[in-house]
Specification:
- The chain folds into two domains: 207 residues, Alkaline Phosphatase, subunit A (3-Layer(aba) Sandwich), CATH 3.40.720.10; 135 residues, no CATH class.
- 36% of the residues lie in helices and 19% in strands.
- The protein has 13 helices and 13 strands.
- A hairpin with a 2-residue loop joins strand 6 and strand 7.
- 43% of the residues are buried.
- This is Regulatory protein, RpfE type.
Length: 372
């Protein structure tokens, strides 16, 4: 029997009035069009858990990264995503990866595409690049001399994610790429005493890759060019608390935390039916609404949220009511905050929680959106 299911659902909260690229009309219109009966019942019967209430709109990490770091017992201010991502990217290696680099930490040097808009630069979602291993090898070879000259050791266990020793550019403040995706990157650029050194290397890499055969071929195929790199997630892979008996995800940070904590690890399931018979506690991350939310494609976002309700929340609600799951925790995220809710089978029988203002799940989401 599944004892506890944790569903982390990033960008599941509509924008709040006055958010970036949003006016006061958008949030209300989205809430009226949302049809999430299963999620609504789960939320209105649940016991609220931890919730972010800060007023900083420029935190450089994602809400789910901070929630995961807190659950794993890690630093939630400067979330060390890179060393755990590296652990996941090296999964199955023989022998397993060592810390190396003087037993320090790691930072992720991620190949990206930066789009030149009319009067600013915009970082594109890294997943849109879909870099092939042969392309990675050629691009890496082109900058090997630059890295050697700078004394930088690079580890390339995954085509889309490279790693360098943390601290090469001092105490650098950096931003998770998805946090900066679709925005003017000026305020999200790396900052710190040695940030100028980092930008110098970044510029040299950009110039080297400009006109590179890999990018010429990608452009001819109608694909985004790989025209820059983004440094982020630096830190050490300190001991992490176990998140769940089983962690099912394709997200490298969550996968790495699962490995570090001793969880069984598996791929991201498409729907709840694929994991309904899993025993023990289970954690997974449902991020299908992320890109639509970032792109403000609200028609697609509504479609993705409705699909989540049909393929996840509704069957989870049924399983909870039938006693096939003992408890469910939902971690909902918006632009800049998370909120946690836990519901048990006994909670479903507390019908009075669904009455009055407590039973208005749209109002609940609206409340979450106003701090998102």
């Amino acid at each position: 029997m599944m004892t506890h299911l944790t569903l982390i659902v990033p960008f599941s909260v509509p924008p709040g009035a006055g958010d970036d690229a949003s006016d006061d009309v958008v949030p209300g219109a989205l809430l009226r069009q949302l049809e999430l009966p299963a999620l609504g019942k789960l939320l209105t019967r649940a016991t609220p858990g931890p919730r972010e209430t800060h007023d900083d709109p420029y935190l450089r990490t994602l809400p789910q990264e901070r929630w995961l770091a807190g659950r794993a017992g890690l630093d939630t201010t400067r979330v060390p995503t890179a060393p755990f991502m590296r652990l996941a990217d090296h999964r199955g290696a023989t022998p397993p990866p060592t810390q190396a680099a003087g037993e320090g930490g790691w930072a992720c040097l991620q190949p990206v595409h930066i789009h030149a808009a009319r009067d600013h630069l915009v970082l594109m979602h890294p997943d849109q690049l879909d870099i092939r291993p042969d392309e990675t090898a050629a691009l890496h070879a082109a900058i090997a001399g630059l890295l050697d000259e700078a004394g930088i050791t690079i580890d390339t266990p995954h085509p889309a994610r490279w790693y360098i020793p943390d601290g090469m550019f001092g105490d650098l403040t950096a931003t998770t790429p998805v946090r900066a995706t679709g925005r003017n990157i000026d305020i999200w650029m790396q900052a710190g005493p040695k940030a100028r050194d980092w930008r110098r290397l970044q510029n040299e890499i950009q110039m080297t890759w400009h006109g590179h055969p890999v990018n010429e071929a990608r452009e001819a195929e109608g694909r985004l060019t790989v025209n820059s790199v983004w440094l982020h997630g630096g830190g050490r892979a300190n001991a992490a608390r176990k998140l769940a008996d089983t962690v099912l995800t394709d997200d490298p940070f969550l996968a790495g935390l699962g490995l570090a904590g001793g969880s069984r690890l598996g791929p991201q399931p498409a729907r709840f039916a694929d994991i309904a018979d899993t025993d023990g506690s289970v954690m997974t991350l449902l991020d299908s609404a992320t890109e639509a939310h970032i792109a403000a494609d609200w028609g697609l976002w509504l479609e993705r949220m409705h699909t989540l309700d049909a393929e996840w929340f509704a069957p989870v609600l049924d399983a909870l009511g039938e006693g096939r799951i003992q408890a469910v925790t939902l971690v909902l995220g918006g632009e800049n905050h998370f909120a946690e809710f836990t519901v048990t089978r006994a909670d479903l029988r507390k019908f009075w929680r669904g009455l009055g203002s407590r039973g208005d799940w749209r109002a609940l989401l609206s409340d979450l959106a106003m701090v998102s």
